[in-house]
Amino acid sequence: MVIAVTGATGFIGAEICRAMAATHDTVVGIYRCSEDRARALEREIGDAGNKFRSVRCDLTDPAALHQGYQEMKNIAGPPAVMVLAAGSKLRGSALLTRQDAVRPLFDVNVAAQIEFARLSLKEMIKAGFGRIIVVGSRAGLFGFPGQAAYAASKAALAGWAASVSGEVGNYGITVNVVAPGAMKEAGDGIYDEREQAMIIERIGCRRLGTPEDVAAAVAFLASSGASYINGVTLPVDGGARF
User: Fold this and answer.
1) Is 150 annotated in the active site?
2) Is the domain covering 2-236 a CATH 3.40.50.720 domain?
3) Across the strands, what pairs with 233?
4) Which end of the chain has fewer beta carbons closer than 10 Å to its terminal beta carbon, N or C?
5) pTM listed for this prediction
6) Hey, CA dihedral for 167, 138, 18, 67, is it positive or negative?
């Protein structure tokens, strides 16, 4: 079974690649930049005895996107599972967020992901089986101050997934969304100490999420045990109440 993951060099995407490679025959990671991280991930997963290849693809260029998809097929074949984990972040006041910042955000977070899914769905319909798993965001469900444009992009993708699930379910294909909440990122992260303390106080589990938490949810939705779960958004947020 071939698994494809967009956003493979991101901190969540990379962990999804590791988790899927541990239990599936072939994983292909699609990334836009960070070639060093892609090569390091190839070595890491390969050293563990698992099969992983990476494909570089400019998600803002439609021609490059189609070329990247074809390269992925040439390497491994059509994907049975497509995980849409690519995403750009944008923080800032809605009043100060201009169109020239919003447009590239939606090109990556929405348009490119929908096109990868569309190309994959053609193959899945032929095969009579498929899994589309969207890595969304809790912000796309409930909003988050200072992340209005980002939240809108994730909400758009969640709406797309809920709609498509009703179109392709009869072909043996499920389309679901995993919605991470506040996450602990490597390095500086996106929250300062004050924000982090306030957020953790309003999370039932009293901690930030990890990439492993998200990867486990994705792996479940890709499994045979989730074959009757379709069109849902699964929050991975520790019981957040904000």
Assistant:
1) yes
2) yes
3) 177
4) C
5) 0.92
6) positive
